[in-house]
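Figure 2 data, in text form.
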Amino acid sequence: MRDIFDIPQIISDFDLYLMMEKGVADNTRQGYLRDVRKLLVYLSDTTDDVGDTAPVRLREVTIDTLRFFIGDLHDIGIAERSQARIVAGIRAFFHFLTMEGYLDANPAELLETPKIGLHLPEVLTLEEIDAIIGAIDPSKAEAQRDRAIIETLYGCGLRVSELITLEISRIFPEEGYLVVRGKGNKERMVPMSETSIAEINDYLSDRATLPVKPGEENILFLNRRGRHLTRERIFQIVKELAENAGIRKSISPHTLRHSFATHLLEGGANLRAIQQMLGHESIATTQIYIHLDRTALRSDILSYHPRNIRR
């Protein structure tokens, strides 16, 4: 077994192995390389190591380590098809490491591929997201509100429950953040895309004309009678827009959250950053302010979100 792990060299050799020996297509090869880098970052975050030498602990990787990694992908809403591709890349990588003498045994040999069936959550393409927004009738009084709703669901990855309780006082457009109360009554800070900020700002002008009911003054999204929107109404809005856009997939507001996470991960964003963004870690309010590097998190998320790449 080799004694030294030169991670950049290993990645380069793995790339050549895929191209020259396996004859893998360019898109697949690039996908495998991205998946391996995600795993290395995950291992680095898990072990609290820093730098290129952090994944030297590849020797300590077990089947359970890899299952936890795939489990985290599932937890943030990554579709099974994307998980299956990542598993294929990881299998190829550990086969290469074993074949080249870096490892005595292959921990990925028994790694299961997620089953793909009709129950899979749908993931929208960026073009389908645009089509849904394009299906909003600009002549309707609620047009700008609905644009802001779709952009906030997709651009911030919010749950429906978080969207309908989103408070104006918890939105900080100049800083590029909003604060939501998620599961377990935990608060978290969520970076906002520039598009989300612009759509919400435009909607606030329309909202100012509504007859807001007492007790609803701080709620962002309201119906025409000045009351907060219900979960059912958000589902109805999303489904109707998808149908009007000619999308035949099974769509719900959660589809936009799945799409948000999948697009970020496939674009190269850090898995831990996505987990924090989606609120899948139990982080209390004070822990957010103490431990979360807001600038780094926002930079990581916005660097890979399709909305910001386009702008």
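Caption note: Residues 19 and 166 are 49 Å apart (CA to CA).
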